[in-house]
Design a protein that fits this description.
With 462 residues, the chain is of the alpha/beta class. 48% of the residues lie in helices and 13% in strands. It has a five-stranded parallel β-sheet, with helices on both faces. Strands 2-1-12-13 form a four-stranded mixed β-sheet. Helix 1 runs parallel beside helix 11 and helix 3 packs parallel to helix 10.
């Protein structure tokens, strides 16, 4: 099966691509940009969409999460000297009840679930043998030349119902990294303060940033994980998105760390009788398993040591230009909540590039020596897709019109602008109320408030 690339070769220059990325922000993306994935993954997405009725946005984002977890602590990307990012993501799949949110995520993590099943069976066998040895008398062990071995530990990747103490213990047994999968994110977040006020929220803020996990509890052995990796994914209904913004979560940076997938027009589908072929399932399992088989080395202190990938020269230039463009968006954003969200995309984009590069490697389309330009291009597309979704969620959580967050002079200007206007017309209106031309043109660059419909012609979004 062949797929036509979305990008024409004529725009494969850093300057042209940054301009293209700017255009992406100005319009609603109908679907997840599937073209960023290798051909094998695009084929799997198409098959699950056609035969299992998985919404494209949901299965694509779910695969992104599964690849993040499959990479774990094996690799990091170095953006600059001292600035390294792992592949951790916090993903929220948003939709109405019955819109097939959970099944795509279950499909995507199935190879990891299978790995956990094998690990559990091995643990049960080892634990049974261990218990039998411990139950023997010292005389019996001596006569048979048996010493008490170390107690077996369960090495698992996924957790759904847990305390922070249990989570840290499981992670200490699997320094490669673990994933959290919760079918209802709202319930998970509601329980943040069930044991101690604020501590669980701080844990998840720190984990996303890669800060060490240090636990000293009387009830368990001390834990020190200097290189943690915990990715999170789950589903949430549109109607309870407001739960995410409570307890200051829309102000402390937690929401900024989330990646939301909230497509429009998703409806419950009729029963599909087609099903998916074993060949497609096997192909997907092979790709994810190839990433899972890699293990990080351990240093002299027993901490996981990640391989580090850097951008090649062209990719580095492209990322730098996108980064500077994002800084301009942040500096010109009048909504502090949104500007905080935009700032986190500097890290998200680097992580996306790492995920795409290693997924391409697992699919046999590239190497794992450097982050190349294709991966950075794809990362930028993912970022702008998630930026639009973040804006949608932000407006729901804040329960207000984004215009209300503007300074009064810009609110007044926005009201006086016609629904569609030219740059020249806008400048005249701005100057009539003592807003300089330069200030107006900076305001005009806000993709949250304006759509560019033609050269020099704009349309208000509210």
């Amino acid at each position: 099966m062949s797929f036509k690339p979305v990008f024409d070769e004529s725009i494969f220059t850093p300057e042209a691509f940054v301009n293209h990325a700017k255009e992406i922000i100005r319009k609603d993306l109908p679907q997840f940009p599937v073209n960023v994935f290798p051909e094998k993954i695009r084929f799997i997405i198409e098959e699950t969409n056609t035969n299992l009725m998985f919404p494209t946005d949901y299965i694509s984002a779910s695969i992104l999460y599964a690849v993040s977890l499959a990479i774990g602590n094996t690799y990091k990307v170095e953006v600059l000297g001292g600035w390294k990012e792992n592949a951790v993501i916090y993903l929220a799949i948003v939709g109405k009840p019955g819109t097939n949110k959970s099944h795509p995520l279950s499909f995507a993590i199935q190879p990891i679930v299978e790995k956990d099943k094998i690990a559990y069976r091995a643990y049960i066998r080892a634990k049974s043998e261990y218990d039998a040895i411990v139950a023997m008398s010292a005389k019996e062990r001596k006569s048979e030349g048996i010493n008490i071995p170390d107690e077996p530990k369960l090495n698992k990747c996924l957790m759904s119902d847990f305390t922070l103490e249990a989570l840290a213990t499981v992670h200490s047994n699997n320094l490669r990294g673990i994933g959290v999968y919760v079918d209802e994110l709202a319930g998970w977040i509601k329980n943040f303060n069930r044991y101690s006020s604020g501590s669980e929220m701080e844990f998840w803020l720190s984990n996303w940033s890669g800060k060490p996990i240090i636990s000293d509890r009387k009830s368990s052995a001390p834990i020190n994980i200097s290189n943690p990796f915990i990715s999170v994914a789950g589903t949430i209904q549109n109607g309870i998105l407001n739960e995410l913004g409570r307890d200051n979560r829309n102000q402390n940076g937690f929401i900024d760390r989330m990646l939301f997938v909230m497509p429009s027009g998703i409806q419950m589908q009729y029963l599909s009788k087609k099903g998916i072929s074993d060949e497609v399932t096997a192909l997907y399992s092979t790709i994810i398993t190839s990433l899972l088989e890699s293990e990080p080395e351990l240093d002299d202190y027993g901490a996981a040591v990640s391989n580090v990938l850097q951008f090649n020269t062209e990719a580095n230039l492209l990322f730098e230009q996108w980064y500077n463009n994002n800084v301009d968006l942040i500096n010109n954003c009048d909504d502090e909540s949104l500007s905080g969200n935009y700032a986190k995309f500097n890290q998200h984009t680097a992580r996306f590039a790492l995920i795409l590069q290693l997924l391409s490697y697992a699919c046999g389309e590239s190497d794992n020596n450097f982050i190349n330009t294709n991966s950075v291009r794809g990362a930028i597309e993912l970022t702008e897709f998630f930026r639009l979704n973040a804006s949608k969620v932000h407006s729901i959580i804040s329960n207000s019109n984004p215009l209300e967050h503007l300074p009064l002079d810009k609110q007044n200007l926005y009201k006086q602008l016609p629904d569609t206007f030219t740059t020249e017309e806008g400048v005249k209106i701005a100057e009539s109320i003592n807003i300089p031309e330069r200030t107006f043109k900076r305001f005009l660059e806000s993709k949250l408030f304006f759509d560019k419909v033609a050269r020099g012609k704009y349309e208000k979004r509210y």
